[in-house]
Amino acid sequence: MAIETPLLLDNPVEDSVDYKGRPVYRFNSGGWKSTLFIIVVEVAERSAYYGIAGNLITYLTGPLGQSTVTAAENMNVWSGTAWLLPLLGAFVADSFIGRYRTIVVSTLIYILGLGLLALSAVLPPLGSSGCQSSDSAGSCSPDPVLILFFFALYLVALGQGGFRPCVQAFGADQFDGQDPEERRAKSSFFNWWNFFLNVGLIVVLPALNYIQDNINWGLGFGIPCLILAGALAIFLLGTRTYRYSIRREEKHAFLRVGRVFVATFRNWRITTAVAFEEETHRAQPHQSSGQFKFLNKALLDPNDTKGDSKVCSLREVEEAKAVLRLVPIWTTCLIYATVFAQPATLFTRQAITMNRSVSADLEFPAASVQLFIPATVVVLVAIYDRAFVPVARALTGEPSGITMLQRIGTGVFLSFLAMVVAALVEMKRLKKAQQYGLVDTPGVTVPMSAWWLIPQNVLLGAADVFAMIGMQEFFYDQVPSELRSVGLALFLSVIGVGDFLSSFLISIIDKATGGDGHYSWFASNLNRAHLDYFYWLLAALTAVQFVAFLYFGNSYIYSR
């Protein structure tokens, strides 16, 4: 009997099984011990992604010879695609093969893309060298190596599309939300997940940026490939310890939610009886059931004259309402994501023009200025989780200190301050260029230290601690349990659409402000450009977004 005691005291974890489909228990599965295997592969993937993305604009404007506008547009389109593809990956994971298998398959695709990217960087160009700059570029045959480069780049985006929405959801699945202790651990999980992720970036990125700028781009692209391959092997070692979520419903959650919207559309002209509304409210007394009442039409069968038959269940309608409530919050976070796109593009371009000397013979890579974002996240996450949350919890009674939407709103406000600071710093840089007569000599370093870019990066790092982590927890927590990969994909799609918005704004403004002998805001000669105007525009848009977020956030009803 003594041997069986642990099993009697520890009930099986609901809706979870082990790798063989058997019931799992808290004492021998999941928790932090399983999450560590998952964190390793996540840190490796983020290091690989930012090892490419963080310095990509330097590669595009350097070895590939693209203009600032073209390089920024190409990078934003690729980045936007990479952040939107998780919607597809989440659909495949939640509807068909599960999160674990999706992580493994997408990581293999990711590794293949990184390998081909490294290969494209070491192969000599096979096309015409003057094709890219020629006015008749449209008649030139494309360089096969350039085609390989972009094919590999989008293969990396495809790999991320399956990996990103599943890995964090799979990590959070290792904690049982029904257990009080594990529920608190899950709330901290999102904080410490980002802590270790950013520690990895601080360790890996400086070395990768230095190798890419000073040694060899092929090696700089190849090292992330090896890191991710090793991390996948470690992830597979944890297979026996993981908890795997199971689906209780016969219908896929995607189909259930979609069926509600289809039924509502079909029944749009049907008027629901008062008695039926009262019955629905009694069956679903939660306050949220009073929102989006038009979806209650999905409960009616148009072919049933007595009104006794229902097309969709009350639970399915409530799931659809939960998804629909996310739309205003998702929309009012888009400008924040547009701001988030600037460090890897325009901030890096600014740093290239500034004094980056550490000593007489050594200067730090321009992309390394971005490291102050993860460095700030590492410091503030620890302070937030260990100091701020306990104090705020005592004052507010909220398990996480402040609500998820309060956390996101704080981050949005900090991103506004970051854009104001960025605009002021760029105004100072332009003034320095004028003072020293460097307006028409873009190849000469402006006598202004690149350390001036630190404050705006620190503010964006602080914004990440609040907004980014807040969005991760919010979109994971506020969707039906079977759609949590989709929830995190919705968070990632915010960043993707933000990248596309950034590319759209840059393209439109460049065409509107350039031409007729005028320099555009994004002229390749940054001393003639006006990035400060663009930053002021983003600050104004962020202020408008913040007001809209406060309005919708104040009326949001949480799904419990």
TrEMBL record:
Bilayer topology: Multi-pass membrane protein
Source taxon at top rank: Eukaryota
GO cellular component: plant-type vacuole membrane
Keywords tagged on the record: Membrane, Phosphoprotein, Transmembrane, Transmembrane helix, Transport
GO molecular function, one term: low-affinity nitrate transmembrane transporter activity
Pfam families recorded: PTR2
Primary localization class, coarse: membrane
Transmembrane segments: 103-124, 144-163, 192-211, 217-238, 364-384, 404-425, 488-509, 533-552
Cited InterPro entries: MFS_trans_sf, NRT1/PTR, POT_fam, PTR2_symporter_CS
Subcellular location: Membrane
Record's signal peptide: none
Family: Belongs to the major facilitator superfamily. Proton-dependent oligopeptide transporter (POT/PTR) (TC 2.A.17) family.
PANTHER family in alphabetical order: OLIGOPEPTIDE TRANSPORTER-RELATED
Protein known as: Protein NRT1/ PTR FAMILY 5.10-like
Originating organism: Populus deltoides (Eastern poplar)
